[in-house]
Amino acid sequence: MFELLFSRPSAVKRHQDAPLAAERTAYLTKLIDQGSSLSVARQAAFVCRWVAQRIRSWPPDLAICEEDLEMLAVSWARRRATNRSRAVPLGSKTRLRGAAEIDLQIRTIIEKHHVARYLKVRRTVCEEHEYRQTRRGRPGPETAYRKITKRRFGIEWSTDEQTIANDHCSDGMYPLVTNDRNLSPAQVLEAHKGQPMIEKRFEQVKTVHEIAPVFLKDEGRIEAFFTLYFLALLVQALIERELRLAMKRENIDELPLYPEQRQCARPTTEQILRLFSLAERHRLIDGAHTVQVFDVPLTELQRQLLGLLGVPEDAFRPPH
User: Fold this and answer.
1) 257 lies in which domain range?
2) For the whole model, what pTM was predicted?
């Protein structure tokens, strides 16, 4: 039978020399007669040899009951699982043996993956009993045995279906919380949709205004410094608001404010100021006497922007 299951002579000899060879052969023959494949019978041969070796080490007068066989099956399954886990590089060369270490590792893994609310994990203890001779030598009728009990830790887990069902009811929801009790739900949502505009203003403070770095240490000066930037940002927002409302009122969809006179549908203050950055007025003087003033030659686009913003062209000319 063993020659049919194993090809290497060393493996065949190992199974033939193990205890209870006749009984194991009969069991494997019955498995194959019932239609089991050779791979299943080969796996059963490994289990039977391991169990036979464990039983042989027990006292001869010890009656083997069903619980002992179940204990051997559990021990074999744990041994197989341990061997498989060792084949995978887990980053640790030693297994956790202490209860405190196991509890800490379980808690760390659960917190890392944020599943503490959904998984209920419990550490378990399993006792394995083994009988060994008190002295060396071949066993006989008068041989004394001692019982060795090993405690092995395991884990059991289950899912909290009630918590999972409760969280499932809120899947896809995006709650909004506000301290303004006068707003209706629709108004809260509308106010929340304005958040990108606020974020855009923060981005402009950091990029266009270049507020950082701040080389101040006194808190009062820092507050004053940020107040000035807040006022500048407020003026910038008002200019953009005024221009866009005027464009909407005059049915103007776009203005050529981008470089190369490309069209812009939502003008910003940075683009407006860049358009007027080259608007200069020169004054020719002779001592304390002004000879001539060269006014700003405004382009057609600049005049259009001033009209939309409600700024008169005289603002670019000196008072008379």
Assistant:
1) 211-316
2) 0.42
Query: Given the DSSP bridges, would you call strands 289-294 and 282-286 parallel, antiparallel or unpaired?
Result: antiparallel
Better-scored residue on pLDDT, 37 or 243? 243
Helix, coil or strand: residue 157: strand
Closest to 273 (Cα-Cα) out of 228, 232, 226, 224: 232
Torsion angles phi and psi, residue 225, rounded to 5: -60, -45
In a shared domain, residues 255 and 270: yes
| Contact between 308 and 247 (Cβ < 8 Å) | yes
Instruction: With respect to residue 306, please indicate whether it lies within any of the assigned structural domains.
Output: yes
Residue 70 lies inside a defined structural domain of this protein = no
Bridge partner residues of 148 (DSSP): 130
Q: Which residues touch 284 (CB under 8 Å, ≥6 apart)?
A: 290, 291, 292, 293, 294
Please provide the distance, in angstroms rounded to a whole number, between the alpha carbons at the two ends of the chain: 121
Q: Which of 261, 141, 241 is nearest to 197 (CA)?
A: 241
Cα–Cα distance, 28 to 45 (Å, whole number) = 7
Identify the top-confidence range among 69-78, 102-111, 261-270.
261-270
- 230 and 292 both lie in a single domain: yes
Dmax (CA) of the chain: 135
Q: Give percent helix, percent strand, percent coil of the chain, each to the nearest 5.
A: 50, 15, 35
Residue 69: per-residue pLDDT: 67
Handedness of CA 245, 185, 197, 213 (dihedral sign): positive
Structural contact between residues 225 and 212, judged by C-beta atoms closer than 8 angstroms: no
Which pair of tokens denotes residue 193? 């949709």
Kindly state whether residue 250 falls inside one of the protein's structural domains.
yes
Question: Residue 135's pLDDT band (boundaries 50, 70, 90)?
Answer: confident
Residue closest to 128 by CA, chosen among 59, 48, 71, 51? 71
Residue 190 shares a structural domain with residue 255? no
Domain co-membership, 240 together with 278: yes
194 lies in the same domain as 216:
no
What is the number of structural domains in the chain?
Answer: 2
Going by pLDDT thresholds of 50, 70 and 90, the confidence category of residue 93 is very low
Instruction: Establish how many alpha carbons lie within 13 A of residue 213's alpha carbon, considering only the half-sphere containing its beta carbon.
Output: 3
